[in-house]
């Protein structure tokens, strides 16, 4: 992508290898963190992993603006074309990502195989322990303990169809449960709330370039989000431990939903920064508690399905949000190629802003307030629907069982970006180990 000048090649790279790599990124890294840690330091390792991801998001925004604005023409080598790899800041920024990826690949060959996990050894002994306990129980009742015959061990397993039938039956029972229906309703209600983060990624940068010029600090403004999350999530989590998860989601959703109104009232660069800041404040309040809520409404033994669905609203919102973002931009803030014209510079922006009633491009008016009003009204439906339906979807007081067994888990990691399988694993460890100690 950094070196090509063909749009077809660029689209193939974006929709092909880049998509596959993106889907494998966080899950593979979380598996690596799990395998190279043990139960004693795993919680700290994942907290550090989450912090480093947000620090990376923070620094990449600053670096992107440096390459785009301060180093716009790259090395400015006369022998190469203006848009070549060495003479373009944007291309050099992409190339720097390729270099760091190659360094990471080289480092993987220097790593040794991880040691056997202590927890895996414990779980491997569980069947033998259960069998021994069953034998002791039979002996206590005066029965002769039954042993497993070698022939039984070598007997063929049950047909795979029966396993699938059991799986389908279990999934059907969960899908028809009242708790699952509550959770699905909550997921659907919050789709528009989580969609605002896709507008932050897909629509805000293009709006800034088209409304405020090619030198708009889109990276610096975007970096407000990870900066706020890194510092506020632990503080808010510690200050609000006495509040119920549902209430934190409800109140925090209002902050995130009202954030686009900054750009509705004031179509200015500082308003874009306030939009991201307000959105981040709301995210720090409600986003960590979403995991605790999803676990709270899940019945014991069914947490896996509920946790796997915790990220479903965000993924479900990606496609329609992207389509709506493109439509709103084309309809209310179209692109006339200003930023693709190297010779245009700031003079075109100055002339356009002086002759248009609102921030505009060369000849094309950018009606930002109308566009962001649409986004704000769509996002505001989520907290209002939570308010209307809270008597039905609010979990019972007993649903706080997870918070008692996993103190601080929800406030340490933003589980909207976490791997669902990893969350289930952490939940199993934190929930199962106290039960073993109680048995002793």
Automatic annotation (TrEMBL):
<feature type="transmembrane region" description="Helical">
    <location>
        <begin position="92"/>
        <end position="111"/>
    </location>
</feature>
<feature type="transmembrane region" description="Helical">
    <location>
        <begin position="221"/>
        <end position="243"/>
    </location>
</feature>
<feature type="transmembrane region" description="Helical">
    <location>
        <begin position="306"/>
        <end position="328"/>
    </location>
</feature>
<keyword id="KW-1133">Transmembrane helix</keyword>
<feature type="transmembrane region" description="Helical">
    <location>
        <begin position="370"/>
        <end position="388"/>
    </location>
</feature>
<feature type="transmembrane region" description="Helical">
    <location>
        <begin position="263"/>
        <end position="286"/>
    </location>
</feature>
<keyword id="KW-0812">Transmembrane</keyword>
<dbReference type="GO" id="GO:0005886">
    <property type="term" value="C:plasma membrane"/>
</dbReference>
<dbReference type="InterPro" id="IPR050171">
    <property type="entry name" value="MFS_Transporters"/>
</dbReference>
<feature type="signal peptide">
    <location>
        <begin position="1"/>
        <end position="22"/>
    </location>
</feature>
<keyword id="KW-0813">Transport</keyword>
<keyword id="KW-0732">Signal</keyword>
<dbReference type="InterPro" id="IPR036259">
    <property type="entry name" value="MFS_trans_sf"/>
</dbReference>
<feature type="transmembrane region" description="Helical">
    <location>
        <begin position="45"/>
        <end position="63"/>
    </location>
</feature>
<protein>
    <submittedName>
        <fullName>Uncharacterized protein</fullName>
    </submittedName>
</protein>
<keyword id="KW-1003">Cell membrane</keyword>
<keyword id="KW-0472">Membrane</keyword>
<feature type="region of interest" description="Disordered">
    <location>
        <begin position="140"/>
        <end position="159"/>
    </location>
</feature>
<feature type="transmembrane region" description="Helical">
    <location>
        <begin position="180"/>
        <end position="200"/>
    </location>
</feature>
């Amino acid at each position: 992508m950094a070196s090509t000048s063909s749009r077809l090649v660029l689209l193939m790279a974006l929709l092909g290898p880049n998509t596959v790599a993106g889907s494998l990124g966080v899950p593979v890294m979380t598996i690596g963190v799990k395998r190279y840690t043990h139960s004693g330091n795993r919680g700290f390792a994942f907290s550090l992993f989450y912090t480093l991801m947000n620090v990376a998001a923070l620094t990449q925004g600053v670096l992107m603006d440096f390459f785009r604005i301060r180093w716009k023409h790259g090395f400015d080598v006369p022998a190469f074309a203006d848009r070549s790899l060495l003479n373009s800041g944007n291309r050099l920024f992409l190339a720097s990502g390729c270099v760091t990826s190659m360094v990471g690949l080289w480092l993987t060959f220097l790593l040794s195989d991880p040691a056997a996990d202590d927890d895996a050894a414990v779980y491997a002994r569980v069947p033998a322990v259960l069998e021994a306990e069953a034998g002791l129980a039979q002996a206590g009742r005066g029965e002769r303990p039954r042993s497993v015959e070698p022939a039984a061990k070598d007997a063929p397993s049950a047909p795979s169809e029966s396993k699938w039938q059991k799986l389908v039956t279990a999934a059907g029972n969960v899908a028809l449960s009242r708790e699952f229906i509550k959770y699905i309703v909550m997921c659907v209600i919050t789709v528009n709330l989580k969609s605002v983060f896709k507008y932050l990624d897909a629509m805000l940068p293009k709006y800034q370039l088209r409304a405020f010029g090619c030198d708009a600090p889109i990276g610096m403004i975007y970096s407000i989000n990870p900066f706020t999350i890194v510092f506020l999530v632990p503080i808010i989590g510690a200050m609000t431990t006495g509040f119920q998860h549902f209430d934190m989601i409800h109140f925090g959703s209002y902050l995130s939903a009202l954030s686009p109104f900054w750009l509705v009232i004031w179509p200015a660069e500082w308003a874009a920064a306030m939009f991201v800041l307000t959105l981040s404040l709301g995210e720090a309040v409600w986003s960590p508690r979403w995991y605790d809520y999803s676990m709270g409404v899940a019945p014991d033994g069914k947490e896996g399905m509920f946790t796997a669905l915790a990220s479903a609203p965000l993924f479900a919102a990606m496609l329609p949000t992207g389509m709506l973002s493109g439509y709103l931009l084309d309809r209310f803030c179209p692109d006339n190629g200003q930023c693709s014209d190297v010779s245009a510079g700031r003079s075109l922006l100055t002339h356009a802003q002086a002759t248009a009633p609102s921030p505009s491009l060369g000849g094309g008016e950018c009606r930002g307030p109308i566009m962001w009003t649409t986004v704000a009204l769509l996002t505001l439906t989520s907290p209002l629907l939570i308010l209307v339906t809270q008597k039905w979807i609010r979990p019972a007081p007993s649903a706080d069982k997870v918070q008692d067994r996993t103190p601080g888990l929800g406030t340490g990691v933003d589980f909207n970006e976490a791997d669902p399988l990893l969350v289930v694993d952490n939940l199993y460890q934190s929930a199962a180990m106290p039960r073993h100690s109680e048995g002793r």
